[in-house]
């Protein structure tokens, strides 16, 4: 019985560190990834966006994971959906 208690007391700092990491690092990161995936899935033609590279534009076409972005009159570029940073 004393051996079990000593083992539990010995492992408690490790357990506390894991709980800390879960609530302050892992859980918020998963939530952020889910929000980003939702944003990418809801992209549609006509959305004004900013890419990760800082390019502002309007989506003119969406094909699977590729999008076409109009950045100026008669100027369009193709990019991966994952290059979208935010929707304006």
Please provide a written account of the structure:
With 88 residues, this protein is of the alpha+beta class. It folds into 2 domains: 1-42; 44-88, Roll (SH3 type barrels), CATH 2.30.30. The protein has one helix spanning 2-41, and strands at 48-51, 56-63, 66-72, 75-80, 84-87. A 5-stranded antiparallel beta sheet has the order 4-3-2-1-5, with no helix packed on it. It starts with a helix and ends with a strand. The mean pLDDT is 91.
Please sum up the structure shown:
With 88 residues, the chain is of the alpha+beta class. Helix content is 45%, strand content 33%.
Write the SSE topology.
Layout: H1 2-41, E1 48-51, E2 56-63, E3 66-72, E4 75-80, E5 84-87
Antiparallel strand pairs: 1-2, 1-5, 2-3, 3-4
């Amino acid at each position: 019985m004393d051996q079990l208690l000593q083992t539990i007391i010995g492992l408690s700092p490790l357990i506390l560190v894991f709980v800390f990491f879960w609530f302050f690092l892992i859980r918020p990161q998963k939530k952020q990834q889910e929000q980003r995936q939702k944003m990418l899935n809801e992209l549609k033609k006509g959305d004004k966006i900013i890419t990760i590279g800082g390019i502002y534009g309007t989506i003119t076409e969406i094909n699977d994971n590729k999008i076409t972005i109009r950045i100026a009159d008669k100027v369009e570029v193709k990019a991966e959906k994952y290059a979208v940073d935010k929707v304006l």
